[in-house]
Amino acid sequence: MASSTVADGLRLRERLQVRARLVFDTAWRIGSGREGPTSDLGVLLDAAGRPLLPGSSLKGKLRSTCEALAPALGLRACLLNAAASGVFCASDVGWYKQQRSVYQSAVSQGIEAQWAWIEQNTCDVCKLFGSPVRAARLRFSDGLLEGGPLAPVQVRDGVVLDRDSHTAAAGLKYDYETVVAGTAFRITLDLENPTETDKALLGAALFEWAAGSSLGGFTSRGLGRFHLEEIRLWGVNLDDPQERIRYLTIPSPDEKLTDRGSWQAYFQPILDRAVP
Ligand SMILES: [Zn+2]
What we know:
Layout: H1 2-10, E1 14-24, H2 55-69, H3 82-85, H4 93-108, H5 111-120, H6 124-129, E2 138-140, E3 144-145, E4 153-161, E5 168-179, E6 184-192, H7 196-211, E7 213-214, E8 225-237, H8 241-249, E9 258-259, H9 263-274
Antiparallel strand pairs: 1-6, 1-8, 2-6, 3-6, 4-5, 7-8, 8-9
The structure holds zinc ion.
């Protein structure tokens, strides 16, 4: 039956969970979009004044890491811009608008045709991170801050540069907040029904983040350098009876999943197969 193929595609079969410690090696900032208490550009803080690392920021950074790595893995990344990337994908709003009547006709032919159209017209990166016509398979929780009640916020000076002369424009000074180096968060990422392609993208990104990358604002000034450590991999394969029983009977979310062992040993063979 055609519809059972779609139902099978929606059923949870496998979940993979990455837990890690993210350490900022330099000062960093994720802007609040508002003035800070003592500066022009504030950082994002919770009600108790502790710095926040939103899951959406982590997901955005992981997306750009995967976009940069996709060509080396022989995978397609639309960069949300079909004209610039040459990859046609429903996430490019302009391209999708032009294709809407084709998509609507697929929808009118039933769920199987709709599913096939989405599958065909979604790039490898958007299959993982989602698009306007497809839910994401990957979810990031907000980072959990380690350590004391307050991570100190520092204020730095910036100057507005004149675009032509590259010298400071007279009188145009501003200051901005950063969070001090050494701040560490526990981060958790969940991936549902990952394909080999999803795992290759995620694995390659984890190798890069373990070596070091940058996150947040003003990275061109050296802010936001971070690395991952204590990376652990957990998962469940619901087709495995023992893992299924464990998943369904243990109430604690932390103990439902099975330890997948070394993340390098898990991802390396997948990457070896993926690299063209
Ligand atoms: Zn795409």
